[in-house]
Amino acid sequence: MKKLRILVGCEFSGVVRDEFGRLGHDAWSCDLLPSRSPGQHIIGDVFGHLDEGWDIGVFFPPCTRLCVSGARWFRKYPVQQLAAIEFVRRLWDRGPAKCVVENPIGVLSTRWERPSQIIQPWEFGHGETKATCLWIRGCPLLVPTEIVSGRESRIHRMPPSADRGLLRSITYAGIARAMARQWGGDLVAGAAG
After folding, report:
1. What are the strands of the beta sheet with 56-59, ordered from one edge?
2. Domain 5-184: which topology?
3. What is the C-alpha to C-alpha distance for residues 23 and 1, in angstroms, rounded to an integer?
4. Domain spans of the chain?
5. How many helices (H) and strands (E) would you count in the chain?
6. DSSP character at residue 76
7. CB within 8 A of 70, min separation 6: which ones?
8. 57 burial via Cβ count (<10 Å: 0-12, 13-18, 19+)
9. Contacts by 121-126 with C-beta closer than 8 Å and gap 24+?
10. Which residue from 133, 176, 124, 189 is spatially nearest to 20, judged by alpha carbons?
11. CA 99, CA 159: separation in Å to the nearest integer?
12. What is the pTM of this model?
């Protein structure tokens, strides 16, 4: 198995980038914000870096104008919603042959295309619900790794705060680990976990 170049676009947390990196891949995150964790991170527009020879692109486009939790604002911001849909289309069209777009349940499935798969955190070791759509090209569907009970909707009940939207967007570690292992493979002998 060869070392892959992975671009994790629109990710400030570094969670997915770090999981690919732990397995020996050359993984980079790219976001307009600085990364919350040290690592290979590009501060800037992801479109300026799509043509840099990536083997896999995993993209987490902003969901503010796309997800059902913001549906009450859809009529107020139609131009912004169209721009958000176009942003996703451009990522998909310009992304590498192996490309994944992640977003919560929302308008993309009706205004763009139906997702390849819908996953839940409780399928990957977290006792929570948060239906998450994946549009997948060139990679296999994610296989659940650890189905757990005690499911609650904690993410939807987060208290108001200045960074609530950012905190809600962070990928669950179990999902990030499954993405790295199932789409990239383990290059590091004896990698933990």
Report:
1. 41-43, 26-31, 5-9, 56-59, 98-104, 132-137, 117-119
2. Rossmann fold (3.40.50)
3. 12
4. 5-184
5. 5, 7
6. T
7. 63, 64, 106
8. buried
9. 121/172, 121/174, 121/175, 122/147, 122/148, 122/149, 122/151, 123/147, 124/172, 124/174, 124/175, 124/177, 124/178, 125/173, 125/174, 126/172, 126/173, 126/174, 126/175
10. 176
11. 33
12. 0.87
Instruction: Please give the Cα distance from 37 to 144 (Å, whole number).
Output: 26
**Which residue is it, tokens 């590498």?**
96
Q: Given the structure tokens 């289309």, which residue do they identify?
A: 89
Q: What is the largest CA-CA distance in the chain?
A: 52
Could you report the per-residue pLDDT of 131-187, keeping only the tens digit for each? 999 999 999 999 999 999 877 776 566 566 665 455 455 789 999 999 999 999 988
Length of the chain, in residues? 193
CA dihedral 10, 33, 163, 65 (to 10 degrees): -40
